[in-house]
Amino acid sequence: MDNIQQNKDSTNRSDLVSEEGKNRKSVLCQRCGSKVLCPGMAAFAEKELFLPSMRKKSSLSTTEGTVDGDTLTSHWLVDDMYTFENVGFTNDVGRIKYLICADCEIGPIGWHCLDDKKSFYVALERVNHA
Amino acid sequence: MAKTYDYLLKLLLIGDSGVGKTCLLFRFSEDAFNTTFISTIGIDFKIRTIELDGKKIKLQIWDTAGQERFRTITTAYYRGAMGIMLVYDITNEKSFDNIRNWIRNIEEHASSDVERMVLGNKCDINDKRQVSKERGEKLAIDYGIKFLETSAKSSINVEEAFYTLARDIMSRLNRKMNDSAPSGGGGPVKITESRSKKSFFRCALL
């Protein structure tokens, strides 16, 4: 990928991203450890994406009509959904499908736009690496 | 990117609402997290990877949750399905009776060579059982379909069910390959790494 970053501020990035810009480690669900991606299967990519919060209702303090969430920029990108070991896809929200853990259904952990059939993003901050 | 799997199988879960179809998709049934956001928008499908006989198999699984009336499930829904899990709840007589309706629905709308399997779910709740295992078995024999009692909650037979259905679909695909092979070479067709697996499946589907 052309947007491999080697920022000085992201000290542990080289632990996660190989020289070829791929994921060095397995990508796992933060909650149940379900395997989402095998090592070397995804490319590091930077893109600003808004992902709704992964917290439960009780801990959310939403004002009506707004969705609580984060804008995240560091992602694992794959071009074919069957590259995933285990993953779930939500129903469409506009042109977007969100990615979730296939086993415990926590999410969204990632993002897919129906207008780009070859791009599936998983946010680094929303998964574990091992 | 090179394909990292040998087979891609498209499966559907069918049955009355409340029989626990969705739970069959969890590895940890009690552990579903369901954030507010996810439970509001709902889940379309899941991709799971299993290994069977040394082959890496991708399962793409749809759950009919929320649209469980036969009339609403027609040809479009079944398109591309290679295997169907028919699920009833052993503590719910009506859900068992409806399996025959679901089978009729599949016969009307799904591809004629789709692999089917009947699951009697919730077999951990024996004290509330309304449908004996024998009746489940008999129904399956009547239609020539495989049968298992499962418990998503206690993880009984859930993996076995998916492995069995996957194996049956693979056997059918391999039979088809053999039938369409130009010469009469008997043995199973070896799928080599160089062959495009994706197009292989498309051929098998159409």
UniProtKB/TrEMBL annotation, chain A:
Pfam families: Mss4. PROSITE patterns: MSS4 (PS51796). GO terms for molecular function: guanyl-nucleotide exchange factor activity; zinc ion binding. The keyword Membrane does not apply. GO terms for biological process: post-Golgi vesicle-mediated transport; protein transport; small GTPase-mediated signal transduction. Guanine-nucleotide-releasing protein that acts on members of the SEC4/YPT1/RAB subfamily. Stimulates GDP release from both YPT1, RAB3A and RAB10, but is less active on these proteins than on the SEC4 protein. Might play a general role in vesicular transport. Keywords: Acetylation, Guanine-nucleotide releasing factor, Metal-binding, Protein transport, Transport, Zinc. InterPro entries: Mss4, Mss4-like_sf, Mss4/transl-control_tumour. Interacts with RAB8A. This is Guanine nucleotide exchange factor MSS4. One of its GO terms (cellular component) is membrane. PANTHER family: GUANINE NUCLEOTIDE EXCHANGE FACTOR MSS4. SUPFAM superfamilies: Mss4-like (SSF51316).
UniProtKB/TrEMBL annotation, chain B:
GO terms for cellular component: endosome membrane; phagocytic vesicle membrane. This is small monomeric GTPase. InterPro entries: P-loop_NTPase, Small_GTP-bd, Small_GTPase, Small_GTPase_Rab. The keyword Nucleotide-binding applies. It is an enzyme of class 3 (hydrolase). NCBIfam families: small_GTP. It comes from Channa argus (Northern snakehead). Pfam families: Ras (PF00071). Belongs to the small GTPase superfamily. Rab family. Its EC number is 3.6.5.2. The keyword Hydrolase does not apply.
